[in-house]
Write a structure and sequence with these properties.
The chain is of the alpha+beta class and 418 residues long. It is built from 16 helices and 14 strands. A hairpin with a 2-residue loop joins strand 5 (233-234) and strand 6. Helix 12 (241-272) packs parallel to helix 16. It is globular.
Amino acid sequence: MNMTIEQAGRMLADAVSYTDERRLHDALTLLRRQAPVHLVQAPEYDPFYAVTRHADIMAIERDHTLWLNEPRPILGKAAFEKLAREQAAQGIALKTLVHMDDPQHRVIRAIGADWFRPKAMRDLEGRVQELARRYVDRMAEFGGECDFATQVAVHYPLYVILSLLGLPESDFPRMLKLTQELFGGADAETRRGESAEDQFAVLLDFFAYFQDLTAARRAHPTEDLASAIANARVDGEPLSDIDTASYYVIIASAGHDTTSSTVAGGLHALIEHPAQLARLREDPGLLPLAVDEMIRWVTPVKEFMRTASADTILHDVPIKKGESVLLSYPSANRDEEVFTDPFAFDIGRDPNRHLAFGFGVHYCLGAALAKMELKALFAELLPRLESVELAGEPEWTATTFVGGIKHLPIRYKLRPSA
């Protein structure tokens, strides 16, 4: 289809664009080739530069002193960003690792880092495998047809991350709804409302829940991540209620929605590429590579923003201090300069230099957990899967930040569990 560079750039500020992957990637390909650093001026948004090449995004991620997360860590409409700045000035705004720069980022990140190191992952592996079996068994109970996205993909990683936090299963439905409202604020099916105030109300509900949790864990510490966060100290002082709640929000939401999108998108990719599904079933040793390819293929985090702390030049484009850039991860993960045949789904792709987890000091804290969850689920599912096909049209979430397939109707046959 014919498209101007200006039209292609504005698609990055249009949540609906992410529901049509072919059209989106046509736009991103055009930008990579003709305007890899392009000024976007879209209705309802403050201007930003779209950065679409892998090498340029890597250069920005490496230089975290020049390119700052604050004050604009993700793309939002101007009205929402204005409200967020006003709330921040009052000390009641969300302030997660995504919003922070060093040295604060380094100190706060360390609070939860031990819970995602190799030893902690080994300790959690049994629980993850147990949950993977539970959800494949549940697929068998559905009678050979289900919406894999809503009935399996959104629940499995949510149970994993909330188990790590130590939350009761009775609270999981509430967390699921809040997470979907947080990341689906531009999607008519999942959003609470259309205004900036409606979106901010979701954060306030998160805060209220986690403030109660913090008080409980401080009064009665337990052996879980929630207790570690609640009782953490920085320079001898406990975290504020807002900082504590913000930490919970990033763990509970980012640790769930990104993985659920990749679970659903990974199965969809295997259905759409039956030769790759057969190859993986014949050689299960390819599963670690297949998981990385699913992550590249889906790229659940669509963008992060950075703001220049000084005048600079990026790819021959001058950018002034205080101007912002959008790092397009779906574009980087289809960059022809980095990936051989980037629009092919290849479960044996090696090396796979995708940027779905970011790079540098802001590399995703839960990357190892996400990979373990994906490996566990597909290791349980594939040996039992006799057949699988689409039972309807998949639907994608309208979002400019985090998301993927929200409905994946499938028809399948499963062997009984061993």
